Request: fold
Amino acid sequence: MKKPIFIISIFLIALAIWTMQNQAAELELDFIVGQKHKGVCWVAGPRPLEGWELDSLRSFGATHISQTPFGWQQDPKQPEIRWEKHSDRMWWGERLAGLEATLTDGRNSGLESILKPHLWVHDAWPGEIEMQSEDDWSLWFAQYAEFLTYFADFAEKHKIPVLCIGTELEKTIHREDDWREIIRIVRSRYNGRLVYAANFTEYDKIKFWDALDYIGIQAYFPLASTVNPEQNDLDKAWSKVIPQIERVVSKFQKPVIFTEIGYCNTADAAVSPWVWPNERKGSEISEAVQAKCYHAFFENVWKKDWLAGVYFWKWYPQVRRSEIDFTPQGKAAAEVMRRGFLGEI
Reply:
């Protein structure tokens, strides 16, 4: 009888180890489907809110908004960053006072905010920021740290749960030591969770995910090669993207937030989702394609246990009347988003 008892003991020990490992993984991925961020990227307005704007958003099932204060960089190759500290020439909603008022109004409406500072580069994309010397790199990171801690202090004061430390700064990510120092500085002043919003072309190259709480992805993955794709084509495209994301999740054992995802209301929206509306002049208008893209996300990605949330680009305080735009407001995609957030897809 000793041998069966010994085997049972080994089995129980193995089961205990397996349970602890899974509990550890669950602690790392410490959210459940009902707690996922159901978010939109909130567009800061030029004037104070009237009070109804965020209530309207809540009716679509959203639980979160990302607020985006800006810093400005005149030249992507020069280490000079300016923000509210240097000038008040910005919209009300991008100033600390506007961020605070929007945060308060949102919480009163049942919406939490995350803070996602961006750099706006004159006639360029933030992914083109690249210094030309070691001295300039040192200056740039020093200024960026000051810019970021300005908002980290605000986030700490107002108990904002998540702070994004950077967005699409693709040509800076090879400076791993500099980024780890940025993270150390921010953590010394802010006790919430940190994410970096990596472009879909860079997230799998980043080495410092272990120092953050979330893997952030600007999820503008191309889902089609032609206009007016079928729903099945979009589903197949996600079936190729998802394993790539899961390899990074497996390596770093961190949950993912789609810090941005969005599609214009055009027939070619799934071909190059990142293309701005003003560059789509002449494109065929199609609410149907935009709605299909939203449906493909909810059908294929939303229920993945590694996905901690999503933020759809973008949502205005008032409905925009422009023909081509990313926003789902007033379009078929808004109903798809509502159904997805409410668990009806």
